[in-house]
Amino acid sequence: MAIQRKKIAMQPISVAPLIDIVFLLLIFFLISTDFIKPILQLSLPKAQTEDKLKKMEIVVSATKDGSIAINEKLVTLENYQAALRSEMLAKNKTDILFRGDQDIPFKIFVTLMDLAKQSGAASFSIEHGK
Hints:
alpha/beta, Nucleotidyltransferase, domain 5, 5-stranded mixed β-sheet, 3 helices, rod-shaped
């Protein structure tokens, strides 16, 4: 006598929990992404060559109208040197990344670099687009 087994119908896999998980992951990554808008809108100059830099902790930004920022904090040209010196002491770094608008007057660029050197900056890097 042969034993007969009951055939059990396969249950369909429910995709509702999968969709919930996908939406939760999407929301998590959207919230955890950094959406901070830069304080100065710059149009960076282009260059043919590019060197990969390590992440710089002190970033000086300047626009063509003369606005200056050190790590997203607006400063004036008069207090630029003191603010840069205090930022270098606070972070214990002397490497500076310069971000300047492509239409910035060369005089402002040279002045910022000279004041940074007087403040104790050891090396400079210039950010540009490719």
